[in-house]
Amino acid sequence: MTDTTSSPPLVESALVESTVSLTGAQHDQVRAVADELARTAGGLIDGPGWLTAARAASQRLPRELRQELREFRHDAGPDGLLLIRNLPVEDDLPSTPVRPGSVRRTATVASSAVTAVMLQLGEVIAFRSEKSGALVQDVVPVPGHEKQQSNAGSVALHMHTENAFHPNRPHYVGLMCVRADPTGDARLCTSSVRRALPLLTSEARRVLSEDRFMTEPPPSFGDLGGVTPVHPVLRGDPADPDVTVDFAATHPLDDGARRAMEELREIFERIAHPHDLGAGDLAVVDNRLTVHGRTSFTPRFDGTDRWLHRVYAALDRRRIRPDSEGGGAVLR
Ligand SMILES: O=C(O)CCC(=O)C(=O)O
Ligand SMILES: [Fe+2]
To answer: Which of 58, 86, 174, 253 could form a disulfide with 311 if both were Cys (CB 3.0 to 4.6 A apart)?
Structure first.
């Protein structure tokens, strides 16, 4: 196991081509949609009716934003990332939660805005075994969990495909900041397989494309039995493959597989883009092309810590049907 306390080396880059900054008028337009949603269907995000209303409301997001999302869905670009800045966040934001498994059950301006944006990419989903199946989850540091390889930790979080072990892992992960890290140290990091592929040896590419890896569920999914089928790390078009790997949970099954995975890990760390997320910034990661992680930071647990909302989107509602509970948004 690699050292969990060191942060990956960082490549400073503006990623200008994959950043959308909302104008003041566009910000106000999203706020109007979000305000309305916070009052709809009792504001109960996971209750019947709210997601239906959010789907309808998402069509009233600014046209330019919807166009960017449609293009991103068509092709997530070389970095597999879309940064949307200047989304609305409630003015009266409460203290950052400190309890484990914290989620948003009641719609707020920010949770409504991020859900509406993600609904333009696909179907918003969650997993019953993860954060009690809530559609909008909090990403906050939790006391006592500092060393955990989860979003509750504050040691460097290894690069990973979100829910890499799961056959119906989300296609997109939305991470929206509602409160920036007051220390400025915590940074979301992303690396795309499109950037990594040309840097890999042909031997590593070949090995990573074979069924020589196994990925464990995170501790929160423990009740699934823990046995997952062997899988390749790279699959699909060899010239533009998808990547599935979690450097804290994927196990190479032989020495060659271990060497290839280590080569990929080093490249991903070398090319990692750090993202300084401020309140109102949403990072949308294409979970097939891009792995993400986070630098280490020092939480204070006094209500002022970094706080993100996380929302997943899946592209094909029919494909996830067998895993969904009664055709709903929450998967087994
Ligand atoms: O805290 C971050 O920036 C990323 C956390 C993460 O990987 C997640 O919540 O899925
Ligand atoms: Fe993650």
So the answer is: 174
